[in-house]
Design goal:
Layout (H helix, E strand, L loop, with lengths): L1 E6 L2 E5 L5 H17 L14 E3 L7 H18 L3 E3 L7 H6 L3 E5 L3 H11 L4 E5 L2 H11 L3 E6 L8 H10 L8 E5 L4 H9 L4 E4 L4 H50 L5 H20 L7 H10 L12 H4 L7 H8 L1 H10 L8 H12 L20 H15 L11 H9 L8 H9 L1 H8 L1
Parallel strand pairs: 3-4, 5-6, 5-7, 7-8, 8-9
Antiparallel strand pairs: 1-2
Helix pairs in contact: 5-6, 9-10, 9-15, 9-17, 10-14, 13-14, 14-15, 15-16
Length: 442
């Protein structure tokens, strides 16, 4: 099953290899789950969902989506219901009535009637006599509106205020606007285009020209949305493939190190949890949502340098000698050197972040770590976070040289400084999320 945000409050769900009965049951289960969802602090609000479903065989996904889209609008009109194409209570007449919706916004009744007459045969017409009514229609129908035909000079709320509202709510990204106005001065037209309108038609207008521009604009936006979804899917697949390859490579290291491979997964989860907590309690570090995902992904390579460590040292069941420990410490430099040799990817943020983590995830906040003795925030925050995650998981996991410590004992050892000094803010993050860590890694 795949779920894709289709636009506004609409989602496209693709379910593979199901019978019609199974399909219906899955959609009913989705509706039931949405209806039962409780929003924290808003328990009196009941969520509803209107679903239209079709079974696709010998046709393109695009054609199937169009049919499902029509059924969804029937479901929207009936409110909180699941409708499947072969439902007996869905008539052909009802399907024929489902047309793309055009919202005409003009304070002059005559103008609205003229445009309605022009477009009514091929579109479902919605009307608003001022900007406030337009916003109400946008709130009610969302991306169910295919296009807005907007006058600029209106009482209560004018066209520019409507455009400003649409921009603030990002509606202009999904719902095209054509201005049809008697005001055609250069400043008016330029300002409208700057605010995101797709076209500007001055009165008096040619009926055929308006009709064709409406058709072309709707098609253009539909094509853009398809292209955006295609590009988004490609980016997702590429990023997912990168994660898979990184995970495979890091698991090779874990396998050679005699570990189960869960260490990589744990480091990823812990890094993600610590970073999210960090940005929630301080703005000291400039970390975006993309940065969190990037650092968590790069964390899988933190021990890649262990590939270059002799097996006798890497898997020694007892305590390492001072000389052996010095050799083991070189895995940080070795890992960074391996990544540094990837000339084809120089400048890539993922590679730079992985390099920092490889080299500096054994540095300590007081300067007593290795290999460079960095101190405080001279250590990149990516390496600091992975360092905390690495120590916690190492303590709570079995190794060839020790048995796992309990969560409580590991927390005590880290907070007491037995594993070196860490950033106090990160230690606070660790304390704040310790219950989630214990539950999430079991």
């Amino acid at each position: 099953m795949q779920a894709i945000r289709y636009g506004g409050d609409e989602f496209l769900i693709i379910i593979y290899d199901v019978t019609e009965d199974e399909f219906r049951k899955k959609l009913m289960d989705i509706q039931d789950a949405v209806n039962k969802t409780v929003i924290p602090e808003y328990s009196k609000i009941q969520l509803q969902v209107s679903i239209g479903g079709v079974i696709c065989t010998d046709e393109t996904v695009a054609d199937a989506v169009l049919r499902a889209d029509s059924l969804m609008y029937i479901a929207k009109n009936r409110k909180n219901i699941v409708i499947i194409e072969n439902d007996e209570d869905v008539t052909k007449e009802e399907l024929d009535e489902i047309k793309q919706q055009v919202l005409i916004v003009d304070d002059a009744i005559l103008n609205r009637e003229l445009l309605s007459e022009m477009l009514g045969n091929d579109f479902r017409i919605l009307e608003a006599s001022n900007g406030v009514e337009c916003v109400e229609k946008l709130k009610e129908y969302g991306t169910g509106i295919s296009i807005v035909l907007l006058d600029m000079v209106m009482p209560v709320m004018d066209g520019y205020e409507v455009l400003d509202y649409m921009n603030k709510n990002h509606w202009i990204d999904d719902i095209p606007v054509i201005v049809i106005s008697g005001e055609d001065s250069e400043s008016y037209v330029r300002k409208a285009y700057e605010m995101g309108v797709s076209d500007y038609i001055s009165r008096p207008f040619d009926v055929k020209v308006v009709y064709q521009r409406v058709i072309n604009t709707i098609k253009l936006y539909a094509k853009q949305r398809r292209l955006i979804r295609m590009v988004t899917d490609q980016i997702y697949r590429r990023e997912n493939n990168n994660k898979i390859l990184i995970s495979i490579l890091s698991h090779i290291v874990e396998f050679r190190n005699g570990e189960s491979g869960s260490h990589v997964i744990h480091i990823n989860k812990l890094t993600d949890m610590l970073l999210k907590e960090l940005v929630g309690i301080t703005d000291r570090y400039d970390i975006t949502g993309d940065d969190i995902e990037l650092i968590a992904t790069a964390s899988a390579l933190h021990d890649i340098g262990k590939i270059g460590i002799d097996d006798a040292i890497l898997n020694k069941p007892g305590r390492l000698t001072d000389e052996e420990f010095e050799v083991m410490k070189t895995h940080t430099v070795l890992g960074a050197r391996m990544l540094d040799d990837l000339d084809a990817y120089k400048g890539e943020k993922l590679l730079e972040t992985a390099w920092q983590i490889c080299r500096w995830h054994h540095e300590r906040y007081d300067g007593n770590g290795y290999p460079d003795g960095l101190k405080g925030d001279d250590i990149p925050i990516s390496a600091q976070v992975v360092s905390v995650a690495d120590v916690y998981d190492a303590l709570t996991s079995d190794r060839v040289y020790k048995r796992a410590f309990s969560h409580e004992k590991a927390m005590q050892m880290i907070l007491d400084g037995e594993c070196g000094q860490f950033n106090p803010v990160l230690l606070q993050c660790l304390v704040n999320i310790q219950d989630r860590i214990k539950a999430g890694l079991d």
